[in-house]
Amino acid sequence: MKAIQYRTFGGPEVLEYVDLPEPEPCPGEVLIETSAIGVNFPDIRERQGVYNRAETRVGGVTLPQVGGLQVVGRVLRTGTETDGHFTGRKVMALMPKGAYAQTTVARADLIVELDEDADDIAMASLPCQGVTAFLALQVCTVLRPGESVLVHGASGGVGSLAVQIARVLGAGTVIGTASTDARRAFVRSVGADHAIAYDSPHWPESVLSLTGGKGVDVILETIGGDVFDQNFTCLGMLGRCVVIGSTRGPGEPLAPRRLMARAQTLTGVYLPSFFQRPDLVQRGLRFLKDGVDNGLIRPSVGATLPLSRTADAHGMLERREAQGVIVLDPRY
Asked: Which segments does the entry list as coiled coil (predicted)?
C-alpha cells in the first residue's frame, strides 16, 4: 500500500511517499480502506517533534511514523473480539496515528458508521477538529442555551466547527475572531453573530461592548501569547475559558487567585487524552454525523490534494493558506 511516512523530525520535506505492508487489525480493531483523509495541525506538530519535547508534557512520536488522525473509508475486515457488523460498512474514524495511508487500522470504539450516500471528503474533514470542539463545549464545560461564547481562530478547522456546534447547542451570542477581513467574513458565514480581529489591542473592549458590558460566558482559546491574558478582561461572571491550543505560544502564567474575583474557571482539552474515554469520543462523532445529516453542521473543505502531495498540504496549513480543512485523496 502507499503511505506517507517520516523517519526524522523536520519540515514538510521529511514526508516520504512510500510503499509499506498492509497493517493487520488487532483485537478490538478494524482494517479500513481509506477513501478520504483529513489533515490537522497536530499532524504538523508531530512531524516537527514538538510533542517529543519535555516542556509540552504530551505524548511523543516513535519514528518512523505514519501520521494522520482521521479518515473515512470502508471496513475490509476486523480483528478478533471485534463486532463483525462493521465489515463492508462505510465509517468515519478517529485514531492516534496511521491515517496517511491507503489502508489503516482504527479502534472499533473510535469509529461511527456512515450512510452510503455520505460525502466522504466532507466527513473526513470532521473527526479531529469537530470532536475537539464538541468536547470543549459539552464535556470540559457545558455551554447552556442562551449563553454567549467567544471562539478564537474561528476561521480554522476547530474554530469554524465550534461556531456551528455552539449554534446547534442554542448559544445566545456567538463571537468569532480571525486575522483578516476575508476570514472574518467566513466566520460570519458559518453562523457567528460577530467577527472581530484578535490582533487589535482593543478587541476585549469590543467583546464587552457586544455583550452589554457583561463579558462572555465561554471562551475557546486557541491563540495564546498576549491574547491568553487579555481573555480574562472580557470573560464574564462564572465564565469558563477552555484552552484548545496556543499558536502564539503559551503566554504568561496566570495567577490562580485572579479567577476568584468573578468565580471563573480555566480548563483545557487535549484530544488524545480522551482516547481512554471512547464513550465521549463516540458522543462527539455521532453528534457531528447527526448534525451533518440534519443540515445543522456544514463541513468546510479548503482543498483536496492527492496523498502523494501531503507535504504540500502541510505547507499550505502552516502558511495559513487554507480556509477550512485540507483533505487527502489516497488513490494518488
From this structure: none
Q: How confident is the model at residue 80 (pLDDT cuts 50, 70, 90)?
A: confident
Query: CA of 44: how far to CAs of 182, 269, 297, in Å?
Result: 24, 18, 26
Residue 323's CB is within 10 A of a number of other CB atoms, namely: 18
Of 3.40.50.2000, 3.40.50.720, 3.40.50.1970, 3.40.50.970, which CATH number belongs to 129-272?
A: 3.40.50.720
**Could you report the per-residue pLDDT of 50-70, keeping only the tens digit for each?**
888 876 667 789 999 999 999
The residue assigned the cell 496515528 is: 97
Among 180, 187, 268, smallest CA distance to 224 is for 268
Looking at the chain, the domain(s) classified CATH 3.90.180.10 span 2-126+299-329
For residue 131, give the C-alpha cell.
Answer: 470532536
- Among residues 247, 217, 234, the alpha carbon closest in space to that of 137 is found at 217
Quick one: which of 160, 170, 168 has its CA closest to 287? 168
Residue ranges of the chain assigned to CATH 3.40.50.720: 129-272
For domain 2-126+299-329, the question of CATH label 3.90.600.10 is answered with no
Cβ–Cβ under 8 Å, residues 17 and 101: no
Q: How far is CA 107 from CA 130, 161, 281, in A?
A: 18, 24, 12
How many CB atoms are closer than 10 A to CB 156?
Answer: 27
pLDDT tens, position by position, 217-259: 999 999 888 899 999 999 999 999 999 988 777 777 888 888 9
- Within 10 A of 58 (CB to CB), how many other CB atoms are there? 15
Q: Is the CB of residue 289 less than 8 Å from the CB of residue 125?
A: no
